[in-house]
Amino acid sequence: MFKFSVSRSFAGTALLLCLLAALASGQSWTPVAASYPGSGAGASYLLTDGTVMVHQEQSATDAWYKLTPDINGSYVNGTWAEMAPIPFYSPLFFGAAVLPNGQLLVEGGEYNKLNPDWTNMGALYNPVTNKWAKINPPAGWTSIGDAQNVILNDGTDMQANCCTTQFAYFNPTGHKWTAFSGNGKFDVFDEEGFNLLPNGEVLSVDAYVFQYDATGMNSELYNPATETWSSAGSTGVQLWDSHCGIESKATYELGPAVLMPNGTVFATGANTCGPGNTSIYNLTTGTWTPGPTFPGQYNVADGPASIETNGNVLVMASPGYGSTPSAFYEWNGIDLTATVNPPNAKGDSSFYGHLLVLPTGQILLADYSRTIELFNSAGTYNTAWAPEITKIAKTVTHGKSYMVTGYRFAGVSAGGAYGDDYQPYTNYALVRITNNQTGHVFYCKTHNPSSYAMQSAALQTTHFNVPAGIETGASTIVVVTNGIPSQSVNVTVN
User: Fold this and answer.
1) Which of 28, 163, 371, 453 has the highest CB neighbour number within 10 Å of its CB?
2) Burial class (CB within 10 angstroms; exposed 0-12, middle 13-18, buried 19+) of 393
3) E strands along 297-391, which residues?
4) Which positions ≥6 away from 4 have C-beta within 8 Å?
5) C-beta neighbour count of 438 within 10 angstroms
6) Angle at CA 242, nearest 5°, toward 236 and 247?
7) Sign of the torsion angle spanned by Cα atoms 163, 134, 4, 368
8) CA distance 145 to 358
9) Would strands 473-481 and 484-485 be described as parallel, antiparallel, or unpaired?
10) Is the distance from CB of 37 to CB of 72 less than 8 angstroms?
């Protein structure tokens, strides 16, 4: 149930050679050329200017490093820069979100300076000033820990409170909270993930912490309109780890769940005494259908998953709880198959992993090492999933802000998932300008999107700031979400 800092060791681990025959053709991993400067790369977040903030973990000292793509838009050849650390605490396993204003909110931490804490501290990072501001918790909250976080369709940030039924909305203006307690929630917020659905509701699979039921399979929906929780029905198979009915040994862990373009949510399970289960939630029928189990003893007792641009789900699993080696699998809506593993997989457990969708369509993996790997998936996206620009300025100027209008700016998936320890959501639009003459790539900082509603048929907007260092002249501009770009539009940069 509670994870501790890990010391990476490759001794005594073995690869499951039988998986090699199942490797998917066309899939590959590419390391970022420059090693991560910190002691170990962990939680990673895509800022709205196309840079990636990566938290140093496995160290009592807080540190953050930013990966900036090179002038050709390559993250493989990107550069690292050290950013300001949080000056008043050093969290590990925390709630977090990139807010509509482009700032990064960090809340709580199961550990502080690598000591078990379940702290209620929080911090807000401003990428423009490279400074952190202290965020006080909602009144009466004594812990937040590793509780989960999500941005609702209207841009409201929703933060849970670990080991209670409390949750709250955060307003960046004045750093104010609106707190709720209970509101129909079945069990406490611990080990569970938040999964935003296209209709604005939030799906969560219950982990039965403090509500132990060896056969429990309930899931829940949060309705922002009524601010209440209700049952979303049985998952059909158990996704949380009850340790086969032995309450004293239960870890209560869960795997991640990812919204797919086909209108289903693929949810993965943990299991310390057998293979992990999967189940699929259908948005149209509101029902669950059990999926395939992982092979052997593989399961996801905490671990990452991510949508690929081809619509499949990439998930990192490992045997038992906290064991090695890890292996990567791909769910295409019908089959769960093994895919190619990065070099570090032999020494990783699933909970080491953090997956993040990049604007290039690659998926970044940070696994507590100094090697950042990028997954290159096979195939491509359905053009019906792509953002579409309907209105944008034909001429833009250095340092000025503009608004772009169109469809599917929030994409067709939230991007990545993990659970209560890490929230790598990327269902917000980035704006990318490419100079026609040089081919050089520039990201504009986006902010204040009109909606985070995925798979929406409604018009959506976002604002973007033209960077001061952009090259002038004839260019093209695209909106890109979860690595899927719109058709390019001609634009002149003054």
Assistant:
1) 453
2) middle
3) 298-299, 305-307, 313-319, 327-331, 336-338, 354-357, 363-366, 373-376, 388-391
4) none
5) 12
6) 140
7) positive
8) 27
9) antiparallel
10) no
Start-to-end CA span in the chain (Å): 55
Task: Retrieve residue 336's tokens.
Answer: 């769960």
143 to each of 1, 177, 185, 336, how far by Cα in Å? 17, 15, 18, 38
* Structure-block tokens of residue 219: 């899931």
Q: Count of CB atoms within 10 A of residue 88's CB?
A: 12
Residues in the chain: 494
| Residue pair 396/494 in contact by the 8 Å Cβ criterion | yes
**Would you say the C-alpha torsion 448, 450, 456, 459 has a positive or negative sign?**
negative
Architecture of domain 386-493: Sandwich (2.60)
CA 13 vs CA 5, 10, 224, 233, 478: distances in Å: 19, 6, 46, 40, 45
Which 3 state secondary structure label does DSSP give 460? strand
162 with 144: CB under 8 angstroms? yes
Domain 24-376 has CATH 2.120.10.80: yes
R_g of the chain computed on alpha carbons:
21
Which neighbouring-strand residues pair with 406? 389, 460
The whole-angstrom separation of Cα 47 and Cα 36 is 18
The number of beta carbons lying within 10 Å of the beta carbon of residue 170 is: 22
Give per-residue pLDDT as tens, 201-227.
999 999 999 999 999 999 999 999 999
Hunting for tokens 């949510």 — which residue is that?
265
> Is it true that 24-376 and 386-493 share their CATH fold?
no
pLDDT at 62 over 60: yes
Query: Residue 62 is encoded by which pair of tokens?
Result: 């807080």
Return the exposure string of 67-81: e unless at least 16 CB atoms fall within 10 Å of the residue's CB, then b. Answer: bbbeeebbbbebebe
Domain ranges of the chain: 24-376, 386-493
Phi, then psi, of 79 in degrees rounded to 5: -120, 150
State the residue for tokens 């998926």: 363
Amino acid identity for residue 260 in this structure = M
Closest CA to 299 of 318, 279, 324, 278: 318
For residue 3, what pLDDT is reported?
58
Largest CA distance in the chain: 67
Beta bridge partners of 264: 282
Report pLDDT digits (tens) over 453-487: 999 999 999 999 999 999 999 999 999 999 999 99
Mean pLDDT of the residues in the chain: 94
Q: Could you tell me which of 427, 445, 439 has the C-alpha nearest to residue 471?
A: 439
Do residues 276 and 298 make contact, with C-beta atoms less than 8 angstroms apart?
yes
